[in-house]
Amino acid sequence: xxxxxxxxxxxxxxxxxxxxxxxxxxxxxxxxxxxxxxxxxxxxxxxxxxxxxxxxxxxxxxxxxxxxxxxxxxxxxxxxxxxxxxxxxxxxxxxxxxxxxxxxxxxxxxxxxxxxxxxxxxxxxxxxxxxxxxxxxxxxxxxxxxxxxxxxxxxxxxxxxxxxxxxxxxxxxxxxxxxxxxxxxxxxxxxxxxxxxxxxxxxxxxxxxxxxxxxxxxxxxxxxxxxxxxxxxxxxxxxxxxxxxxxxxxxxxxxxxxxxxxxxxxxxxxxxxxxxxxxxxxxxxxxxxxxxxxxxxxxxxxxxxxxxxxxxxxxxxxxxxxxxxxxxxxxxxxxxxxxxxxxxxxxxxxxxxxxxxxxxxxxxxxxxxxxxxx
Length: 374
What we know:
Strand content: under 5%
Number of strands: 2
Distance between the termini: 37 Å
Shape: globular
């Protein structure tokens, strides 16, 4: 059986959510084939994830590992989703371990049965997700070793193109990054493709809608880094529209996009020696309102680092807008201190992330899929 990734996710009302979950549970109960069960579990994990219930999403994805599944498409989709969630939660060691297990399994299968187009596509996806983990951890050389294996244009779709584009963006290869971001959005699977073709299966923050939003957002950031602020604003506004349409206007992912828009206005003001403090302040404040807490169902250790660096970036930017106001300097200092204590990016400091100029050797790249600063 096949499921559309949007079937149960666009309407976020509690009643619709409960009905959707009930349908999926009934669907799971009647499936005889483990591959079909795996596909239903992917759909359930996405539903839980978009409701903010990360723990249940992870549980459903792990259940796929216990099934006797012959489809590598299902296994790779589950791995990508697990890695994506763990990265969003700041559980980088766990994300790395999950990606490595899938890589070992893929290598064993290639040795046993050889290669073909489907396996090559899935292999490119496993390499790209491992490359993303290394990129998040600031290990650019190791990330490059994975992305070099997916340089054939036929693999440049969706998450592969986006992750490789982010790698090129971080390396200041802006022209290649721009090309890859365009490919990630233009070659998006259609609304049903996540579940129509086995090697395009996806779940949670790796589904096509998330990739479209994130690729649009990174393209907007790239134009901002190039100093094309009018184009950047237009593209980032489009990313915001995608996020609000898919998640609703009060979702933390909307806060991630708003943070990027606020940073774009900050970069523009610095580059043009102009002022947009009121705009920046409003955007950062709104972003913080949406980002301030982890998903409702995320507790304990899972909640500790959820969207930590995005929060730090937004707090740091907000502090910079307040510090010029004499009456709010104390508030600004508290925010700045809180942001700096939370910032753990291995590649650049918080100051470097906030003060991007045309001469900056490092630029921050916000990945809206996983809510991390690369």
